[in-house]
Design brief:
Elements: H1 17-27, H2 30-43, E1 47-50, H3 62-69, H4 79-84, H5 94-105, H6 117-124, H7 128-139, H8 151-160, H9 167-175, H10 177-181, H11 185-192, H12 196-207, E2 229-233, E3 239-243, E4 250-253, H13 255-262, H14 267-304, H15 306-311, H16 321-328, H17 332-339, E5 343-346, E6 349-352, E7 360-362, E8 369-370, H18 371-383, H19 393-404, H20 410-419, H21 425-428
Parallel strand pairs: 2-5
Antiparallel strand pairs: 1-4, 2-3, 5-6, 7-8
Length: 435
């Protein structure tokens, strides 16, 4: 065995720092992109961030700008703050108020007390009786149902505060909640000596209650949704896509600072300027490439989803990322990065770009139907059904085939129904009007 040397030529793709940066820019959301640009301005002293963009074309109408600005959420009142604001009216003693405040701080975001009272009593160095009295005070506050330890107690607290008490509803929730929730109504009706219609009445009453009393209060600011692309309809009825230039500031190069540094005549300073200018030009090129990629992607979506733009997401056609990637001549991963955390403003609202992609639910008929369209049809069929004899999954599958030419299995119908959070036919059945 002897050692040998030989030459070999090989082509190999190498991910440079600039290429990695371009890939990252493509998948950034509008908010993340602006934060990234400001970070770059801190690293590059010649890079300027200009908030006032010089426009080469007339700006969009004030109404179009206002539409996406209205997506900025306002900070809502917190549940803890709402509860604490009611304490002065109770006129509690010092220790009692401290216990109540401690219990309020122990509630979760839904308004439930998940920690056992015995554990809280040990932490606060109080007796369980003191904690029990404090909890009853918390449960007397608004919103009704707050401070409950489980769903049954939450509903019961709300029933007890109704202007007209319902003894049957309170008894069912207090002693028979599990069989009632599972809709074992025939057995329960015999046990209680009531009719199915009365159980249905109680069910309708309980549906008006709030299972999560803290849901309308938040400790976080709702996320800001800014559209990257705006789709509008032209005067001749054609759809057009416009890039939202307001999502990031304009980049500029500080020529005055460059001249001051270059005037020193330092060779290292000149090399520093060249390196920073190369970074600046690459960043500007990456931003333009991101813009063009989004515009080309949106153009394909407009071409393939015209009916969706006309009638909403219920008219969505099957379209996969691989099909769009082949049409654009890019890799599927590029499309996936491009639609990640990106939003488009449409006539029916601001939606995520990813929503326009949907697999075909069936290949029957002249045209395949998207899963989104099938879900919309299933939801419409269920909303129109006879509540006393709700449609089974097999009946829904038959109606999809006979009325809409969509052939899918019963199992697929059940999967879509569960994704829509619609209960089974047995749990949707209502007994009002039956003997």
């Amino acid at each position: 065995m002897r050692a040998e040397l030989w030459q070999e030529q090989r082509l190999q793709l190498s991910l440079t720092k600039e290429l990695v940066q371009a890939i990252e820019l493509l998948q950034y959301s509008a908010v993340d992109l602006e934060a990234f640009l400001y970070e770059q301005s801190l690293e590059n002293p010649f890079l300027e961030i200009r908030r006032t963009r010089v426009r080469q074309r007339p700006s969009r109408t004030e109404r179009d700008q206002k539409q996406w600005l209205e997506n900025i959420g306002a900070r809502a009142e917190t549940l803890v703050g709402h509860l604490l604001s009611q304490l002065p009216a109770l006129k509690l003693a010092d220790r009692e108020e401290r216990i109540v405040r401690y219990l309020i701080a122990s509630l979760d975001e839904d308004g439930y007390l998940r920690v056992p009272l015995a554990e809280l009593a040990a932490r606060f160095s109080a007796s369980e009786q003191e904690m029990e009295r404090g909890l009853r005070l918390v449960q007397s506050l608004d919103p009704p149902g707050v401070g409950a330890r489980d769903l049954a107690e939450c509903l019961l607290l709300q029933l007890e505060r109704l202007p007209e008490r319902d003894e049957l509803a309170e008894m069912i929730v207090r002693y028979h909640f599990v069989p009632f929730a599972e809709k074992s109504w025939k057995t329960l009706a015999k046990q209680l000596g009531v009719s199915l219609g009365e159980l249905q009445r109680v069910f309708e009453l309980i549906r008006t209650l709030e299972p999560r009393p803290g849901i309308h209060y938040s400790s976080e600011t709702p996320p800001l949704v800014v559209p990257d692309v705006i789709v509008v309809r032209g005067a001749e009825g054609d759809w057009m896509a416009a890039y939202n230039d307001d999502i990031h500031p304009e980049l500029g190069w500080n020529r005055e600072y460059e001249r001051r540094i270059a005037a020193s005549g330092d060779r290292h300073a000149e090399q520093f300027i060249k390196e920073k200018y190369r970074q600046f030009t690459w960043l500007a090129k990456s931003l333009e490439q991101r813009k063009q990629t989004l515009l080309h992607l949106t153009a394909v979506i407009i071409d393939r989803q015209r009916s969706c733009l006309e009638f909403g997401l219920s008219a969505l056609k099957p379209m996969t990322m691989r099909e769009v990637a082949e049409e654009l001549g890019v890799h599927e991963s590029t499309v996936s990065r491009a639609v990640r955390h990106k939003y488009v403003q449409t006539p029916f609202g601001t939606v995520e770009l990813r929503r326009f992609f949907s697999n075909a639910a069936t290949a029957a008929g002249d045209e395949a139907a998207s899963s989104a369209r099938v879900k919309a049809i299933i939801e419409a069929l269920i909303s129109e059904e006879d509540r006393r004899a709700p449609l089974s999954d097999q009946q829904l599958a038959d109606l999809l085939r006979d009325r809409h030419g969509i052939a899918i299995s019963r199992r697929t119908v059940a999967k879509y129904r569960e994704q829509l959070r619609i209960p089974s036919s047995a749990k949707r059945r209502q007994y009002i009007g039956l003997p």
